[in-house]
Amino acid sequence: MAETKQIKNAATKRLSDKKTKGLPKEDTKKLTQSKTRAKKIKHSYAVKDPENALLLKLKNGDVIIEMYPDAAPEHVARIKELVRQGFYNGLKFHRVIDGFMAQTGCPYGNGTGGSGKKLKAEFNRNPHKRGTVSMARSMLPDSADSQFFICFADCPWLNGQYTVWGEVTSGMEYVDMIKKGDGANGEVANPDEIISMTVIADI
Questions:
Q1: Is residue 43 part of a domain?
Q2: Residue 31 within a domain
Q3: Per residue, what are the HEC states of 92-109?
Q4: Is residue 157 part of a domain?
């Protein structure tokens, strides 16, 4: 019994070590995640190309988006750049229309902002169907910036008018759970947020 108590006290002492207190979450994860485990986690997503695939974390679960670098190279490159900057983390799904789409990517949370870099349109033959990820824009073709939307259903009337840059290949059921808007034009009160977005190659 004395030996058990001694081990317990030693373990408790290690847990209260000041060196491990106050570490950011990302650092505490690094303490317990080996390179082998990280590699297994990355491979568990089973994507075609980890460099062109995203892990989108939502409140209900993980979503995998596989991107189309051949169809929209500039958009994919910019999205990856913003993701790696942490731009999308915490942004709101400010416009969500049931049966149509969920839109996010505005730093102000109201659809009026972006990252400050406009993208030339890369309209392509990929259709707007359930799970399609496409860029939002104004009336001007070359006005896409950081905002994008995910289609809940097939939307053929959008084909050829917006730049499709990816597709949800896993976790669409969690996209379906994003809080819907009931305001004008799909405006959402107390909207859901992107917990984080990560390029799978970086995991």
A1: no
A2: no
A3: ECCEEECCCEEEECCCCC
A4: yes
Residue 40 tokens read as 């297994």
Domain membership flag for residue 26:
no
pTM of the predicted model, to two decimals? 0.81
Domain membership of residue 76 as a residue range:
49-202
Q: Which neighbouring-strand residues pair with 61?
A: 58
Q: Distance between CA atoms of 9 and 112, rounded to whole angstroms?
A: 56
Number of domains in the chain: 1
Residue by residue, pLDDT tens for the chain (203 residues) are 444 444 444 444 444 444 444 545 444 444 455 666 555 566 678 899 999 999 999 999 999 999 999 999 999 999 999 999 999 999 999 999 999 999 999 999 999 999 999 999 999 999 999 999 999 999 999 999 999 999 999 999 999 999 999 999 999 999 999 999 998 899 999 999 999 999 999 99
